[in-house]
Amino acid sequence: MRVTLSDPTLLRQAGRFVWLELNYDNEGNQAFLARHGVAWTPAILVLDPSDERVTASRMGGMSLSELKGFLEEGDRGFRSKEKGQVAAALSRGNAESGAGRFAEAADAYREAVRLAEPRSPQRAHATDALVSTLQVKREWQTCAETATAEAPALPRGSSFGRIVHVGLGCANVGEDARWAVAARKTLEPLAVEATGIDGLSRDDRFQLYEKLMIAAQLRNAPDENAKWGKRWLDDIDHVVPSSDDERSGLDVARVDAVLLLDEPALALPALEASERAMPQNYTASARLARVAEAANHHDLALAACERGLRHVDGPIGRTGLLLTKASALQGKGELSRAKETAQLALQAATSIPNAHNRSNAQRRASDFIAKLETK
Questions:
Q1: How many C-beta neighbours within 10 Å does residue 43 have?
Q2: How far apart are CA 355 and CA 205, in angstroms?
Q3: pLDDT per residue over 237-268, tens digit each?
Q4: CA dihedral sign of residues 174, 179, 182, 188
């Protein structure tokens, strides 16, 4: 998203919007993030500066054209000049979502879906917001079934692509449950169709590939899993990154793709090149270490962990690097050092400001230690 936000055509928005970027791992930002219910990144909000009311919100990346439309939506919400019941319901949903009141937001978005004309862009927009909110609330079945019911009749645009990949992701969580299997029968062909939509953001297209790979794995269809994984990697490899931020974003996707393919070694040359290009960036070292360990290159993983730990600037990154280091030491048979390192990871996790992330990191470290103690 930083690449999109730095596009020179956005300079004309300088009189309307003030750009503010917050570090998700910084303790000083946690009150704001909690107040607005930010559960993951990227999260993009348009705020009324007088009272922090959220006039538009989006979880996930956007293309430049989508971002410009999003800013217009935020401006309309700020000026409160929108007419009509659908727009009013959407504005209420955005405000509730931006305040972290996701149950109330879902109710408002449902009302917008009910009021909007079938096959209309407004209905697509409202459904997009609704399924994303249901995903945040972990209402997997309702999310998948809402996408299944609404997506087939919607116009084929960016909102359609997001509805399909979010709905398919929720269905994948349900694995072999009857509702999940039924939802995937509808959503998988729609996801295939969505990969060909012009103007779809790169992030949304990559999300579609990922969800299609997982769905193929759930159906025990290795050839389809490989087809989507290779297409994903081809798309990544055809992009020449214009900045370190874009390089990092591509590497995140590359890691996801090779791990779902169960061919982690495929990514090692690109990740090593990225670490050389960004020697001060601990996340480049962390990605290399994670994939090297998955490929059983334990020494390569250990060396990357050490480089990353020299530059890490927050407890989330430190915890992750230490756990990867512990896994590499375990792979080399150095169980005592692996346990000591995992205990350091558990200690680092206690400093993670966000309660949800802290709990997950502590659980991962504790589980690792417990498994070591059974050996």
A1: 18
A2: 31
A3: 999 998 999 999 999 999 999 999 999 999 99
A4: negative
The closest alpha carbon to 187, from 166, 217, 158, 159, belongs to 166
Q: Identify the CA nearest to 300 among candidates 313, 281, 287.
A: 287
Distance from C-alpha of 294 to C-alpha of 153, rounded to nearest angstrom? 42
The phi and psi torsions of 252 (rounded to 5 degrees) equal: -60, -45
Q: Rounded to an integer, what distance in angstroms lies between the CA atom of residue 170 and that of residue 353? A: 27
Task: Quick: pLDDT tens for 81-134.
Answer: 445 788 889 888 988 888 889 999 999 999 999 999 999 988 999 999 999 999
Contact 270, 240 (CB under 8 A): no
Eight-class DSSP state of 49: T
Residue 126: predicted pLDDT: 94
The pLDDT value given to residue 81: 44
76 SS3 class: helix
Q: How far apart are the first and last CA of the chain?
A: 44
Amino acid in position 213? M
Q: Name the pTM for this structure.
A: 0.80
Helix (H) or strand (E) holding 58: strand 54-59
My answer on whether omega of the bond before 42 falls inside 30° of 0, hence cis, is: yes
Strand partners for 43: 59
Structure tokens belonging to residue 236 = 């990544």
Give me the count of residues in the chain. Answer: 375
For the chain, 375 residues long, the average pLDDT of each consecutive 10-residue run is 70 74 72 68 77 72 73 69 73 86 95 93 93 95 98 94 97 98 98 94 94 98 97 96 92 97 97 96 97 98 98 94 98 96 96 88 96 86
Residue/partner pairs of 297-303 with CB below 8 Å, 24 or more apart:
297/265, 297/268, 298/328, 298/329, 298/331, 298/332, 299/328, 299/332, 300/268, 301/325, 301/327, 301/328, 301/331, 302/328, 302/329, 302/332
CA atoms within 13 A on the CB side of 277: 17
